[in-house]
Design goal:
The protein is mainly alpha-helical. It is built from 5 helices and 2 strands, in the order H-H-E-E-H-H-H. The protein has a two-stranded antiparallel ribbon.
C-alpha cells in the first residue's frame, strides 16, 4: 500500500482492470493474488459477522434485470428486506452500527 500511495492517479488508472481477486498482506505491505473460493469465503465471513442493520447494498441502474434480481437475493439471505436504489441512498442518512 505504501508504494501505491506514491503512484499518480494517472499511473494507477493505466494498470487496467483486476482480473483476479487480491488480498492485502500486512507483512509484505502488498496485495497478493488469491483464488475465488478464498475471496468469497473471506467476504462471506465479514458479511456474516455484521448485524443486518449495519450493512447497506447499492446497485446502479445500469445493471440488467437478471443481475439486479440475483444481487438482491444476497441482502435477503442476510435478513435485510430493503435493497435501496441510488436516490434513496443519497437522501437517507447512513445506518448506525
Amino acid at each position: 500500500m505504501s508504494e501505491l500511495r506514491q503512484w499518480r492517479d494517472h499511473d494507477l488508472e493505466h494498470q487496467g482492470r483486476l482480473t483476479h481477486p487480491l488480498r492485502y498482506d500486512p507483512q509484505s505491505d502488498k496485495y497478493q493474488p488469491c483464488d475465488w473460493a478464498e475471496a468469497f469465503a473471506a467476504i462471506g465471513a465479514e458479511l456474516k459477522a455484521l448485524p443486518p442493520k449495519a450493512t447497506i447494498f447499492y446497485l446502479s441502474g445500469r445493471a440488467s434485470l437478471e443481475t439486479a434480481y440475483l444481487y438482491a437475493l444476497l441482502p435477503g439471505y442476510m435478513g435485510i428486506t430493503i435493497c435501496p436504489t441510488a436516490p434513496t441512498c443519497a437522501m437517507r442518512p447512513p445506518p448506525s452500527a
